[in-house]
Design brief:
By secondary structure, the protein is of the alpha+beta class. The chain has one domain: 4-Layer Sandwich (Anthranilate synthase), CATH 3.60.120. Helix content is 27%, strand content 33%. A hairpin with a 2-residue loop joins strand 5 and strand 6. Helix 4 crosses helix 10 and helix 5 crosses helix 10.
Length: 493
Amino acid sequence: MATRADVGIVCRKLQIDLDPLEAMRRLQHRASPLFLDSAAADSRYGRFSVLACEPTGMLWTGRDGKTHVDFGGSKRTLDEGPLAALAPGLRPFRVVEKPEDLPCFVGWGGYFGYETGRFIERLPATTKPDIKLPVARLGFYDAVAVHDHARGEWTLMAADLHHGYPPPYDRVVKGRLDTLAAHLTGKAPKAAKAGKPVAAGKAKWNMSRAKYLEMVRRGIDYIAAGDIFQVNLAQRLSASLSCPAWALYERLRVSNPGWYAAYMAWHEGKAKASDAPTCAVLSSSPELFLEARDRKVITRPIKGTRPRGADEDSDAAMRQELIASEKDRAELNMIIDLERNDLGRVCEYGSVKVTEPRCLEAHPTVWHSVGTVEGTLHERFDVIDLLKATLPGGSITGAPKVRAMEIIDELEPTERSVYCGSIGMIGLDQSAVLNIAIRTIIVDRGTAHVQVGGGIVADSDPELEYAETLHKARGMLEALGLDEAGLLEIGGE
């Protein structure tokens, strides 16, 4: 094996009394900001929020299948997908020193779009690529700020890529930490105004209500024919945006805070430093796709949704309805089995276990039923192998996964882009925290795209499935200043 470079993870406590949102306001106008923003109250999951900007390396995969890498002083264009291209940015490093009480959040942060799956499996790729964002986009963030929600503490974290070298190499790490500390302790810009609707002009679906219902019926037909057990089918709303992406994210964070929320923004093409970003991803996802740390792997698929009630009685009724639903229980069990199989491809034999078959989680606009599957990554494999075995997540494809993805490609008219992909951070120590990019708004050159879907099974009711997509969209629609009644009208027949 080739010699690997030793890396140390250097930490410094930062004594500031800031909410993560207030802290991110200080970074959001800098180059390629990244905000992994947790609203979770559970100390087990979503415990940390991570803030970063000004990456020292970039990797992005275009829709032509080529991956561009700017890292380590060289720029390359590769005829391969994002996972293969990412491997040289992770595998040459060996983390020999890191904190015991914090995960490693220094490394590659960004997203893998749903279409990353086409670099893993042979898929038809017939949907229309009308969103122009890269298939995958990740920055190398060698310094980050981490907020521990359980302890209320801030820690600055940086990669010492010259670990063991004599001075003056230590000044590089100190300089990165000093710069980040200065950004966070500087004067904050004003908060975005929360009350003004931000969608401009008429919103449009990528299909009519009637076509969505027909799409669901065709999915049910495939299930009846024995092709699949379940398939996730989605529709998309698009509207012109009349505000900066960050202002929209602040609204989204109020209307639908997520356990695994995220914000990232950047310029496509030539732009001045003062220009607002042309592209952004705003996620209020409640779902953990992968958490990997010290070879322990966790995935928590969501299947089963009910809207929150207007009062305590109706809210309790919705919760009880979800608990009692055999359809939703069966749907979750199918995806748990799929996730067990995916993890079993790279985890130690016998280590993959369902540690929580089903629990209910309360989120601002919906109730969800969630399962938890855990395993131990085999010593032969690393985080790149784990991603190849699991992307895209089974909860947003269906089962069996590859056939479900073929049917999605056949039935949905447009590519999903970041939606149903994954957003998060891959640490230099082979750790990872990645969400499923649902409840996610994609901003592409002045247009905001909102995509919502649901799992279709044999006894699905197309009308109820359509209504569920609107329930899931509620928080995003509120952030955009839209309402369900108006969307039903424009959905049409």
